[in-house]
Every structure is written in structure tokens, then in C-alpha cells.
Design a protein that fits this description.
The protein is an alpha/beta fold. The protein folds into 2 domains: about 180 residues, inorganic pyrophosphatase (n-terminal core) (Alpha-Beta Complex); about 100 residues, Roll (Diaminopimelate Epimerase, Chain A, domain 1). It contains 11 helices and 10 strands. Strands 2-1-3-4-5 form a 5-stranded parallel β-sheet. A 5-stranded mixed β-sheet has the order 6-7-8-9-10. Helix 3 links the parallel strand 4 and strand 5. The longest helix has 16 residues. The protein is globular, with a radius of gyration of 19 Å. It binds manganese (II) ion (MN). The site of manganese (II) ion (MN) has 6 residues, from loops.
Length: about 300
């Protein structure tokens, strides 16, 4: 029986979300389902770069799809309006902290701690003994590069490396592609640091008080320290900003509120000099949050 399946990430997706939606919808179509990707709202600048470079054209999508697959997303916050939780039949994501079983009771859930959700989608293609189109293989590779700081960040797993190598055997990213996607992202952030910080901020609950983590990932991220320190967000209590430099694969964690800084330092085991603590290789928000929650890893 043919069904209509919409595959979507969050609204205004990043490259990982957009690539997963396109690539997983393509796999479902190959397997006989009537599936389509939804790239809802305005993808971020890096995603737009990669979509343009690979010649992707947004299909006209019927919002009346009976079933929904979430990719690179496992929360109800920020989903497209077309998504209702009861219609979600599958969730593919790579967050370490989630409540997906409760939020999406009908869904088959695969949430595994790899660097990119695109790795999980590439593995689905391999498991099905099929190969995505060249342009789709490029999108998935670009997404893996993006989420793993070019395969060098501490979130990178052997599965990300395997998936990237397998995809490169289908279509290799042209020279300058990854530099181009990071440059597009950097330009968008630098053009308005305040807007980027609020876009990239998330609040997390904790028994000892909620807190906010904003994360900016770009080449030369450390050069933004002064601009970030001048932002309104820096004067708010229980806020940290994680600057991830995708060139050096290092990160700088900034906290201006001294009480909150001591609280974080004790739990993460990092040493601050002034407002900043350097981490090499880069540590990402999902890892920081897991450690603050006391999860193993
Ligand atoms: Mn992702």
C-alpha cells in the first residue's frame, strides 16, 4: 500500500536537517513510498549554500501527508506547523538528551550519539544496499563535515568517518565546497552577532536552576570574543556562549556570570582564565549539556 510521508527537520533547518530530509525522503521513494522532503522556512546560510551548489529545487509539498518522519530533530519545539506529534511515525536524530518516546508515542525512534544525523541516514542507504544520487551524497557529506568540525571535533565517531568515506565513493565534494559552506555560515553570523546568538540559544532545565547555552560554529570563531562580550546576552545570568572554531577544531566556552562560571567549572572539570575556557578538541553544546546533567560520556 502506498502512503504519503513527509520527511522534515525543524523549521529554518541547518544543513544537517535539510540534507537528512532530502536524503531520507529519496530513500523512502526508492523503497516504494510516496515520500517528499519538507525544508520549511528559511534554511540557514550554510544550508542555502549547499542546496544551491548541488542544484536542489524545493518540491511543491502537499501538507496533507498522513505520516511524518522527523530527522535531526526529536523535540516538539521549532517544528514546522504541518507537523502534529500524533502523526510522527519515525524519528532519526543524534541528540544525547531527549524525551522522544513520550513526545512521539507512535514513532519508531533511532537516536544515537553520532556526530551528524546525516551519518544515520547514510547508514540507512547502505543497509538498504542502495546508493543516493550524486547531489544527495554531496549534501550528506557536507552535513557530516559541518557537524563534526571537518571530522576533527570530539563529537566525531568512527561511524561518521565511515559514512563520509562511503559517500565520497559515490560523489566527492569539489575543492572549496566545505570552505564555501563555512564561509557562508560565518558571513551570516558576523553580519549580526546579536541575532546569531539569539537564534543559536537554547535554555536547559536543571534541578539547580535552568541555564542558556548559545553556540556559534564558524572559522575564526575566537575572533568574535569581543563582539559576543558586547552582546546583551552576555549580561544575562546563567548564560554561556560556546565559540567553536571549525578551522582549528578548538572551542572557547565563555561565561561572564562568575557564580554560574564556578558552577559550570566544577561540573565540567574545565579551567577558566577570565571569562573563557579553551577546549581542544572542540566540545559541543550537546556534550556540555550531557555533562551538566550528569549523564555518562
Ligand atoms: Mn544535526
Amino acid at each position: 500500500m502506498r502512503i504519503t510521508v513527509l520527511v522534515t527537520a525543524k523549521r529554518n533547518p541547518d544543513l544537517d536537517g535539510a540534507a537528512c530530509a532530502i536524503a531520507y525522503a529519496e530513500l523512502l521513494r526508492e523503497e516504494g513510498y510516496d515520500a517528499a522532503p519538507l525544508v520549511d522556512g528559511n534554511p540557514d546560510a550554510e544550508a542555502r549554500f549547499a542546496l544551491d551548489e548541488t542544484g536542489w529545487a524545493r518540491p511543491a509539498v502537499s501538507m496533507s501527508a498522513s505520516e511524518i518522519v522527523l530527522v535531526d530533530a526529536s523535540d516538539v519545539v521549532g517544528l514546522p506547523d504541518a507537523v502534529s506529534a500524533e502523526r510522527v511515525v519515525e524519528v532519526i536524530d543524534h541528540r544525547q538528551h531527549h524525551d522522544a518516546e513520550r513526545l512521539f508515542p507512535r514513532a519508531r525512534i533511532q537516536i544515537e550519539a553520532v556526530g551528524a544525523a546525516a551519518t544515520l541516514v547514510a547508514e540507512r542507504w547502505r543497509a538498504a544496499a542502495r546508493r543516493p544520487r550524486g547531489s544527495t551524497a554531496l549534501l550528506l557529506q557536507a552535513a557530516i563535515q559541518s557537524n563534526t568540525q571537518r571530522l576533527r571535533g570530539s563529537v566525531t565517531t568512527p561511524r561518521d568517518l565511515d559514512a563520509a568515506a562511503w559517500l565520497a565513493g559515490i560523489a566527492e565534494l569539489p575543492d572549496g565546497f566545505v570552505e564555501g559552506q563555512f564561509a557562508a555560515r560565518a558571513a551570516e553570523i558576523v553580519a549580526d552577532v546579536d541575532a546569531a546568538l539569539s537564534r543559536e540559544s537554547k535554555r536547559f532545565d536543571h534541578p539547580e536552576g535552568s541555564y542558556v547555552v548559545a553556540q556559534l560554529e564558524l572559522p575564526g570563531a575566537v575572533g568574535l570574543v569581543d563582539a559576543v562580550a558586547a552582546a546583551d546576552l552576555a549580561r544575562t545570568e546563567r548564560v554561556m556562549v560556546n565559540l567553536v572554531d571549525v578551522d582549528s577544531a578548538r572551542s572557547l566556552l565563555l561565561i561572564w556570570d562568575s557564580a554560574f562560571r564556578r558552577w559550570v567549572a566544577a561540573r565540567l572539570g574545565v579551567t577558566f582564565t577570565g571569562a573563557g575556557a579553551e577546549c581542544s578538541p572542540a566540545v559541543l553544546r550537546k556534550q556540555i549539556v550531557a555533562r551538566l546533567r550528569g549523564d555518562a560520556s
